Amino acid sequence: MQELKQYYKQRLPHIQPIGATFFVTFRLHGSIHNSVIRELSRNYQQAISKAMIKYSNPRDTNSRKYYLKRRLVVSYDRILDNREAGPRYLQEHKIAKICMREILKHNDQLYHLIACTIMSNHIHLLIDTSVQIPPDGQISANAENFTTLDQIMKKIKGSSAFYANKQLSRSGKFWGKESFDIYIRNEKMLSNVIRYILQNPVKAGIVEKASDFEHSYLSPEYGEMESY
Predict the structure, then answer these.
(1) What is the bridge-based pairing of β-strands 112-118 and 21-28?
(2) d(CA 112, CA 20)
(3) Would you kindly state where each structural domain of the chain is located, as residue ranges?
(4) Of the chain's two ends, which shows fewer C-beta atoms within 10 Å, N or C?
């Protein structure tokens, strides 16, 4: 059997603790030039190398790595928010509806969807994958019994790309290969990320308040959008 992987790497490393809650950003293909992604990756790796030299304590090193990953994700989002060129298929109502439908398709099966916002060229997700862990907390160490984050993203991106391309009467790549993700460590960070996701359309000047944006979602147990 194939063992569960908690780590995978494309241009950037991805850490996937079993059953964690993840903040994920994924984008349209062509929305950012590959050279920009390479530069982000290079800067991140250089900062990690410096941290490895500076800190001898593993706890300090891991904390610094986590901080650098958070900073990387924020930098990536800012580039997408300020990007004027490139495709903007997601601003079309029908395409955004398709994407939300495909995200909700797996809700409470592979993950619990906490929050989501669909911008013109990228999507923010906050998902809790602990719904896959049985009540006794025991899970077999094989990929047949647990769908990891990279597998979840393949399902979401694969089906949404198929239906979106069909709606647009186009073919070819729809999503960028890379997704940027970070796992949530505590309640404070969870609340901050929810606010960050829901406020994205407000900061972009699309709406005056989060609840006015049609293509955002907040799970009912986390209250009203106005509270964020």
Answers:
(1) unpaired
(2) 11
(3) 9-31+87-227
(4) N
Distance of CA 94 to the CA centre of its chain: 21
CB neighbours of 163 closer than 8 A, spacing ≥ 6?
A: 98, 102
pLDDT score, position 16: 67
CA 137 centroid distance within chain: 25
Helix ranges, the chain (H): 34-54, 58-82, 93-104, 149-168, 187-203
Query: How large is the greatest C-alpha to C-alpha distance in the chain, in angstroms?
Result: 55
In a 3-state reduction of DSSP, which class is residue 115? strand
The CATH architecture annotation of domain 9-31+87-227 reads 2-Layer Sandwich (3.30)
**135, amino acid identity:** P
Q: What is the reported pLDDT for 165?
A: 98
Q: How many whole angstroms separate alpha carbon 130 and alpha carbon 127?
A: 9
- Report DSSP letters for 121-175, one per residue: SEEEEEEEGGGGS-TT----SSTTS---HHHHHHHHHHHHHHHHHHHHT--S--E
pTM: 0.79
Measured CA to CA, the distance from residue 47 to residue 65 in angstroms comes to 9
pLDDT of residue 1: 33
Structure tokens at 167: 């709606």
